[in-house]
Amino acid sequence: MRRIPTACFSSVAAGLIAAAPASASDHDEQVWTSATATTALSPKVDTTLELHSRYTDDVSRVGQVLIRPSVTYKLPRGWSVTAGYVYVRTRFENTAANDEHRSWQQIGYTLAANAATGLAITGRTRVEQRFRPDADGVGWRLRQQVRAQLPLGRGNPVRAVVWNETFIGLNTTAWDGHDGVDQVRTFIGASLPIADGVTVEPGYLNQTVFRIGPERVNHILAANIFARF
To answer: Which N-terminal stretch is annotated as signal sequence (predicted)?
Structure first.
């Protein structure tokens, strides 16, 4: 394992938070919840199902629901490859709901790990192919995430967690005319074990969405539960 000073976590956290854009003229308060269940099909293959509900417009209604199954093949030295599908149903205020289907592929990797301190810095690079049944065109999007976590004291099972994810549109379609940086998400919170194989990650998530006109900044209370069976 590479040895990295504990102080590195503070630097990574500060850098990730700074990566979130600071100003915009359109804001919303939201609550995002998710449940992720993973089980092993073999020593090297995992299958995962994620369920997401996102409450928008000052937490007044369900604005988006996602269902995301996937299969991961684990490689040596902390690498992995994943392929999956996601169904997304979105309803903006005073508009009809729309459906989106995505296929996606991902590479996961460990950037740094320190056995003495428990510091771990990981990354994932994901490519999505996005389809709308009511419109033509396939939207390609790149998602890059870097995540750092560190135990809050020696032997403490509670971990501080910080991550940043940038979404980049690779093309335009009839239903999405925006390419380039689409949005940036930055999370700061904690990982709390609540049972054998089950952890909860509550925290604050800042989402900045870039679009024609004013940017939109969503201030989100996020609560994510992870279970491994």
So the answer is: 1-24
Q: Supply the pLDDT for residue 25.
A: 57
Q: pLDDT tens digits for 148-189?
A: 999 999 889 999 999 999 999 999 999 998 899 999 999 999
131 is in which domain, residue-wise? 7-228
Distance (Å, whole) CA 67 – CA 62? 14
Place of tokens 């939207």: 139
Residue 108 lies in a domain: yes
Residue 2 located in a structural domain: no
Record the pTM: 0.88
Q: Are strands 216-228 and 26-42 parallel, antiparallel or unpaired?
A: parallel
117: left (phi over 0), alpha (psi -120 to 50) or beta: alpha
CATH of the domain at 205: 2.40.160
Straight-line distance from the first to the last Cα atom of the chain, in angstroms, rounded to the nearest whole number: 27
Backbone phi and psi for residue 225, each to the nearest 5 degrees, phi listed first = -115, 135
Query: Any residues with CB less than 8 A from the CB of 29 and at least 6 apart, and which?
Result: 58, 59, 218, 219, 220
In a domain, 1, yes or no: no
Amino acid (1-letter code) at residue 78: G
